[in-house]
Every structure is written in C-alpha cells, then in structure tokens.
Specification:
alpha/beta, seven-stranded mixed β-sheet
C-alpha cells in the first residue's frame, strides 16, 4: 500500500444562524465553533466529543494527532477521505471547567440532531466513550464492550471505536482501531446500509 501523508480536510462552515449560539455557555471560553470537517455529502459520519486544535500558535492550519491517527486508519483500511464527514457533540473546544452533562445535552439536541437530519449519513461511527455515551443516551456505555458490532441508534447503523487520542496514548489499541475501520468498510461495501 502506498505511503500515507495526513492532510487538512476542508472545514464545513458553521451555519450563520448558529455562529452566535450562546445556549451551552462554551462561547465564554473564547474558542470558535467548528461545525465539521471533510465531505458533508459523505456516506459515513464520524462523531467525536469536541474539536481539537485546528491551528498552531501562529494561527496556521495544522493536522493534530487525533486527525493523523484517524486519517491513517481510514487509509490503511482501504477507505477514501471523501467517504467521511467528521463532526462533534460539542462544536467548541472546551478549555476550562464546564457542566459536561448539561452542555453535551444542549449541543446534541441543538446542533448534532440538525446535522443528522440534514446530512442523513448511511453509517455513523462514534469515537470514544464521551461520543458513545452522549449519542447512545447511555451514561454507562463503553467502547470496550461495544466495539466490533453494529448498533441501531436514532435510526442509524452505528459502530463505535476508541478515540484516536486514546489510540495514540496506547499504541496497542491501533490494531483494534484499524479493525473497526475495516468493519465500516465491509458494511459500506456490502450495501446493507
């Protein structure tokens, strides 16, 4: 397989009607909204907990470690970047303490539910326990016991996998992360979506 080089995926602009959203309170932390990245028309929607760094200290776009790990697994599983759209439970990166449960609930219903109705992806992949617990509506849900299978959630075929940051911290998880991306590829290619 050819070598892999991570790249900056195009950012999906935040709708003008949502730019000034103050409902969850994260605007007070000074971070900007990041609505999503990748192909908005993609058949696969990746859901993460919140956006990470998109710019370096000088304000230049960059590919952070989370994106590098995700893009590498997608590539090695034989999938194409055009098949993915990445979005978040929270649309702003928290930098200080906040009411996690309330904020996630607000953002899930105010923003992510609208994105789902608009984009109607064929498959959803939740990365990390926070995304899984919030999207599944189950505070006890854990990736460890749920990965490797498909789940019906909100009318969508949904898979779960470890958060790419966890995979970077514990490289032994990469094999499992890659297996989960291969599961996604098999489901997409089977046409049973």
């Amino acid at each position: 397989m050819e070598s892999f080089c991570p790249e900056i995926w195009p950012e999906d602009p935040t709708p003008a009607s949502e730019l000034d959203c103050k409902e969850c309170g994260l605007y007070k932390q000074g971070t900007r909204m990041v609505w999503g990245e990748g192909n908005p028309e993609a058949p696969i929607m990746i859901i993460l907990d919140n956006p990470g760094a998109r710019e370096d200290r000088e304000g230049n776009p960059m590919v952070c470690g989370t994106r590098q790990t995700l893009q590498r697994a997608i590539h090695e599983a034989g999938l194409e970047k055009e098949q993915f759209y990445v979005t978040y439970i929270l649309k702003r990166r928290p930098v200080r303490k906040y009411d996690k449960e309330q904020t996630r609930d607000i953002c899930m219903h105010r923003h992510l539910d609208k994105q789902l109705k608009k984009h109607r992806p064929k498959l959803i992949v939740c990365l990390g326990n926070v995304a899984v617990q919030t999207f599944f509506g189950d505070p006890e849900a854990e990736v460890k016991g749920m990965r490797g299978n498909w789940h019906e959630v909100k009318g969508y075929e949904t898979a779960v996998a470890y958060h790419p940051l966890a995979v970077r911290r514990r490289p032994n998880l990469y094999k499992l992360f890659l297996e989960d991306m291969q599961l996604v590829r098999s489901k997409l290619e089977s046409g049973q979506t």
